[in-house]
């Protein structure tokens, strides 16, 4: 299927110096790959300047499990939360809310604070939603920049969390009634809007306008273009 002809994504910020690494070895990476979640995490890493790393975690049986990360820094910080039983991702998962933290908030555990300082992490944004096969799923951004992550990126991250949650849903035969087709089309447009928002760092109305323009120029339905955009998030 021909992919929609959308404008190129916004240029990425130039990478800063590599932060100091803690001396302790990090935990092993996830045993199983989740291509869609990896793509979602990679998109989330570019929603704002200064995002060092991103992790996708779930809450199962009251415990934090990391499904994927964009680098060892996120894995180390996730491991600190797992061993200490607290931290922003766990707070978002257990509280069912969006969490933004900085060292000045005084809510970082000593172990988490030490690793964050070694990595240059100055703020954290964690967004969670209920998820299939788990109690909740969280997308956590670890940032090194001075610009608060709680401003424009929250809506973008929430949209990506919806895509990640949908990726965990078990595959089932799709009903073919007009009502179900309409619901699937709406879901595809909503998910594609989130993907475009993250890729282009734009608000929802602008992302929807880009999708609509692509559909018009290609003489395709908006839901067809949206489905192609969402499918492109998953390699292969």
From TrEMBL:
Residues 1-30 have a biased composition (Pro residues). Coiled coil: none annotated. InterPro entries: ANTAR (IPR005561), WH-like_DNA-bd_sf (IPR036388). It holds the Pfam family ANTAR. It comes from the Bacteria. One of its GO terms (molecular function) is RNA binding. Residues 1-33 are annotated as: Disordered. PROSITE patterns: ANTAR (PS50921). Residues 169-230 form the ANTAR domain. This is ANTAR domain-containing protein. It comes from Friedmanniella luteola.
């Amino acid at each position: 299927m021909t992919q929609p002809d959308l404008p190129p994504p916004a240029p990425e910020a130039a990478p800063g110096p590599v932060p100091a690494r803690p001396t302790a070895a990090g935990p092993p990476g996830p045993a199983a790959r989740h291509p869609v979640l990896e793509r979602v995490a990679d998109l989330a890493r570019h929603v704002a300047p200064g995002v060092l790393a991103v992790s996708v975690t779930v809450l199962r049986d009251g415990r934090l499990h990391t499904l994927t990360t964009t680098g060892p820094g996120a894995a180390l910080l996730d491991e600190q939360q797992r061993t200490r039983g607290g931290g922003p991702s766990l707070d978002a998962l257990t509280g069912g809310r969006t969490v933004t933290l900085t060292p000045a908030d005084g809510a970082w555990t000593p172990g988490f604070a030490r690793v964050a300082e070694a990595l240059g992490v100055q703020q954290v944004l964690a967004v969670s939603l209920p998820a299939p096969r788990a109690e909740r799923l969280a997308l956590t951004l670890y940032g090194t920049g001075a610009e608060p992550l709680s401003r424009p990126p929250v809506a973008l991250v929430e949209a990506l969390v919806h895509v990640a949650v949908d990726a965990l849903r078990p595959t089932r035969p799709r009903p073919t009634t007009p009502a179900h087709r309409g619901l699937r089309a709406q879901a595809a447009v909503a998910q594609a809007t989130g993907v475009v928002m993250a890729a282009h760092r734009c608000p929802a109305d602008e992302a929807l306008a880009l999708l609509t323009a692509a559909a018009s120029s290609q003489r395709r339905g908006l839901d067809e273009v949206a489905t192609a955009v969402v499918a492109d998030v998953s390699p292969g």
